[in-house]
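Office hours follow-up: a student asked to see two folded examples consecutively, so here they are.
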Amino acid sequence: MTERCYRFRLLLSADQVLSYYQGHVKSVVVQADNGLRIQLDLVHFRRFFQHSGLDGRFELLTDAKGKFKALHKIN
């Protein structure tokens, strides 16, 4: 099987991150550089959260069926 790679930017305010911790929001929809829209559980971004929110470019790796494999911050 072939891995697939998607790159995108995600910007969340401190209030949006707080909504995740309060249980109001569980996922986010991002638009990859190739135009594809991808829904991801925010739990995958927890290690990147800051007090000010989240701002960065990411690389998502999935298997050929679209199942999550890894998420890396690339800047």
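And the second, which I mentioned at the end of office hours:
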Amino acid sequence: MEKAGIAQRIRDEKGNERYDYFQSLNDAETILLIDSWRDQAALDAHHASPMMDELAALREKYDLHMKVERYVTDEQGMPAGDQKFIRK
């Protein structure tokens, strides 16, 4: 993704706010992708782009399997009880 420039092209897409990979310290075969978009419309446009065919080809080539978890920004903000655990 990085070597082929695909990751940067995704980062450059309109509405992309973050596209970063992280490797597990416990399992070198596990990679976490944080993929953040301005809104659902931006994500839908990304999913409709020809780039998705390139991603699918890489998944097939390297026999990659995915588990997806979706997180949504908490519009209420962090509760006061949780803030005491955050060091700023």
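Two things to take away from it. The CA atoms of residues 32 and 67 lie 10 Å apart. The helical segments are 6-11, 40-47, 51-61, 80-83.
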